[in-house]
Amino acid sequence: MRGEIKRLSTHYRFFHWHLAFPDVFHITSNNGKPSSGREGWSGGFNLVLGNPPWIRQEKLKPIKNLLSNMESYKSTADISVYFLDLSLNLIEISGYIGLLTPNKWLRASYAELLRHKIKKESKIVLLVDFGHSKTLFPGADTFPVAISTKNIEMLLSEDKTFKFVRAYDEDRKKHTISALIKNYYIKVPYRNLCPELWKLQDISLTTLLDKLSNTGPTLGEYLRCKKIRGILTGIKSGRNEAFYIDSQTRNRILNQTPGSSFLIKPLLRGRDIKRWITIWEQQWHILIPSSQNKNWPWSNASNEFEAEAIFNDFHPAIHEHLVKLVQSK
Question: E strand or H helix at 51, and its extent?
């Protein structure tokens, strides 16, 4: 047993905050009970500040059984959800959090528990959504959001408001971030922060949107009625850098194997779909339907090695492209 504990400890590198920082976290009890029932300690940091790593949920698979103990756990959540959850646990009453993360947790269904926890345990001081940004970090295509909160003991009134700022690339061309925060914020009431959806608009626009949403079925309800469920999920490649390619890579593949053109389709991402129009950025998707859905020359191969060899015979350039990425992993 001790050997297994040591192996797991070495592999996962468990970190005990109250042991590592005894001057920050301490046990204070009322009738022998710690004041923080869940963690078993009191106190905490004055400030948690950072830009956590941006890691997709697919890469968290080896540690998801450990993450499942967190209040905000969802199997499809990215790592920003867990950093925000942990930050709320680590700050003292009246302590502050300031984090820059991907903005998906603002709207994604997998972050409902996190949104509920943020509203319940903190006062939002400032929320800045940078939208789809290509200029905030030079050379990076990102969807950032900055959040600043203050830890509280009592739930805030629904009438309380906080500052929300839209700081998209086009906004920051006209004004500095400081100017946007000072002069172009809107006050969002806490009643807009439902776990299933944070309505980040002012009161007048929220009233209009509520009226629209209560008129007729939603797209999700319509598709469920039509039993068209797959479209709600979208395409999951399993490894975007392998199957999403640019025009230069597509042309190189087709110059070697012109017959592979039917396996490479134009790709529109969510970020390419604007109001009323789409803006295609010369992106392509290598799309190979499963043998369960289509009969391929390799469908009846005796094993995956034979199937791969047959695929290589028919589509050598695509095979070479995929193998290089697998080997570089």
Answer: none
Q: Are 90 and 17 in contact (CB under 8 A)?
A: yes
H or E element in which residue 11 lies: helix 2-12
Residue 98, classed as helix, strand or coil, is: strand
Q: Is residue 172 within 8 Å of 165, Cβ to Cβ? A: no
Tens of each residue's pLDDT in the chain, 329 residues: 777 767 766 766 677 787 788 888 877 655 545 555 455 677 889 999 999 988 888 888 888 888 888 899 998 899 999 999 999 999 998 999 999 999 999 999 999 999 999 999 999 999 999 998 988 988 888 899 999 999 998 889 988 999 999 999 999 999 999 999 999 999 998 988 988 889 887 777 777 777 877 887 777 777 666 555 555 556 666 677 888 999 999 999 999 999 999 999 999 887 788 878 888 989 999 988 888 888 999 998 899 899 999 999 999 999 999 988 877 66
CA distance 56 to 51: 15
Question: What's the sign of the alpha-carbon dihedral 235, 116, 147, 48?
Answer: negative
3-state secondary structure of 269: coil
* Sequence-separated (6 or more) residues with CB below 8 Å from residue 194: none
For 40-114, list the strands marked E by DSSP: 42-43, 45-50, 91-102
- Helix-helix angle 79-90:112-121, to 10 degrees: 20
Distance CA 208, CA 294 (A): 47
Contact 244, 268 (CB under 8 A): no
200 neighbors 131 (Cβ within 8 angstroms)? no
pTM of whole model > 0.85? no
Q: Which residues touch 321 (CB under 8 Å, ≥6 apart)?
A: 242, 245, 249, 253, 286
User: Beta partners for 1?
Assistant: none
98 contacts 49 by C-beta, under 8 angstroms: yes
Quote the tokens at residue 259. 């017959």
| Short-list 124, 115, 117, CA closest to 150 | 124
Identify the CA nearest to 257 among candidates 314, 311, 321: 314
